[in-house]
Amino acid sequence: MPASPESLPSTAPTARGGGVLSDLTGLLGRSSTYALSDIFKQAVNFLLLPLYTTYLSKADYGTLSIALAASAVLEVIYGLGLRGAIGRLYFDQKGEGQVRTFLGALTTFLTGYGVLLSAVLLLVGPALWPLLGLDDSVTFSPYIVLALLAVPLNTLGLALVLPLYYTRGQALRYAGYSLLSFALVTGATVLLVVGLGQGAAGALWGRLFAAGVMLLPTLYILARNIRFSFQWAMLGPALAFSLPLVPHLISTWALNFSDRIVLGNYVSLDDVGVYTVGYQFGLLVSIVIAGINNAWTPWYFRANTEGRREHIPAFVTYFVIVAAALALGAALLARDVVRVMIAPAYHEAWVIVPLVALGYFLNGVALRFLDVLMLHKRTSVVPLTTIAAGAANIGFNVIVIPHVGLIGAAYGTVFGYAVRLALTAYYAARTGPLPFEWGRVARASALAVIVAVPGVLLNASAIWLDVPLKLAIFALYPALLVGTGTLNARERAALWQGARAAWGKIR
Q1: How far apart are CA 498 and CA 504, in angstroms?
Q2: How far apart are CA 9 and CA 350, in angstroms?
Q3: Rounded to the nearest 5 degrees, what angle is found at the Cα of 440, between the Cα atoms of 29 and 481?
Q4: Distance set, CA 82 to CA 90, 227, 336 (Å)
Q5: What number is the average pLDDT over the span 493-503?
Q6: Helix crossing, 171-189 with 269-305: angle to 10°?
Q7: Strand, helix or coil for residue 138
Q8: Neighbours of 47 (CB within 10 A)
Q9: Is pLDDT at 418 greater than 90 in this prediction?
């Protein structure tokens, strides 16, 4: 039977012989689609924050954030890192038939494993959860039970459907699937939290409802793209690649989410709620970087496989510039955006944003070193970097939070990601050539810091005055990139032409 249109790989990212402009255009196009879908979701969450912070008390927000932190680590345990295996091993399969068999083996395994794991966790969870010291404020039932029911329903989509789409360069399908899931979660949450006043438990019930509904399109998509089978010859290499990533992913969870659980042991749930709101704003930097990365990683592997490596160093520099600009913008505008959007009880959350944005910038740079390790299939090394970083983050939080409160968790985020960046760079340098233009990357990063420090400290009391001042300060960054020669003459000319073309369309 001929393959359906759904199952055919995208040809867009595999074109050979293109110059730097065609490579960059294709990469930017897919990055934009991934990033815009994620930005749209975050924008809706931002717009709903005033609503949520009105109907959820700070304690409710703290409870919800801890339950979602537990959900995040459960997603790692259920997915076993197989998302990464698809992104890399897909290119080792010979032909569409082998791809379908490969995906079928993963689907069969994940389904059986998920059912068994759920039964075990629901059985032993009531005894294990109180050991974290949170049972009095965030009880296993209903909060963690609801998370345990929702996560396995989402696993096939997160571990198979989404990585299949971005590996094939099918950005629009990726965005459509992701946005449908988001719409279901958001609609159900608003109904249960705002309409019915169900609090933190209502938000978790909404996620469970959305996961159940999304299972139907997930199974439909998989049925069109896989051949149900269980072949160890297909599954074995995937697990050999992915299982070493599980400690890495759990340590990444520690970097991203464990601070809420540590905070819950040392400060009130009110403070956990304030911290979580601030973190939401800083998270925008990570979301855009993740969107770019979804397009970048398959392109990077293809470019190396096809011998088209000459564009990679310049593209890494552009990535660093964009990531630095995102972190800079988030840091400069944090105070004003929080004051405008969020209930007064949460206004102090703005101080979290610049530090979280800096942490995610450091993590974005670390991803470019991670490319080298993944290209050479050194997944056994990757956990060493994140385990050390996660342990550093948790240790820092345990020592610092009791003395300085919630701001200590934000400093811990920066410290943890700095450790990850240093270790990932070290192991990547021992593995293969590093695709970095070191001078330009260092200048771009330093210029962002030079602009950020006075910009964050400046505070005009009136928002109508502060926002224009911060935007003017932000404009110094591209001006300095041009003035210091960090962008060369060809790049400056391309930017000028692009700006003129955009202005022409606006007019």
Answers
A1: 10
A2: 44
A3: 75
A4: 11, 17, 41
A5: 70
A6: 170
A7: coil
A8: 10
A9: yes
| Alpha helix segments (H runs only) across 80-170 | 82-89, 95-128, 145-156, 162-167
Rounded-to-integer distance, Cα 360 and Cα 325, Å:
12
- Which residues touch 376 (CB under 8 Å, ≥6 apart)? 431, 432
**Contact assessment for residue 455 and residue 470, using Cβ atoms and an 8 Å cutoff:** yes
* Closest to 244 in 3D by CA, of 117, 119, 373: 373
CA distance 275 to 257: 11
pLDDT tens column, 100-144: 887 888 888 888 888 899 889 889 888 888 877 655 667 888 888
Looking from the CA of 492 toward its CB, the CA atoms found within 13 Å total 12
Report the C-alpha gap between 316 and 372 in whole angstroms. Answer: 12
Q: What is the DSSP code string of 167-184?
A: HTT-HHHHHHHHHHHHHH
Helices 258-266 and 269-305 sit at what angle, rounded to 10 degrees? 160
Say how far apart CA 370 and CA 324 lie, in whole Å.
18
Phi then psi for residue 10, to 5 deg, are -70, 140
Residue 461, burial from CB neighbour count under 10 angstroms (0-12, 13-18, 19+): exposed
**Percent of the chain's residues with pLDDT above 90:** 20
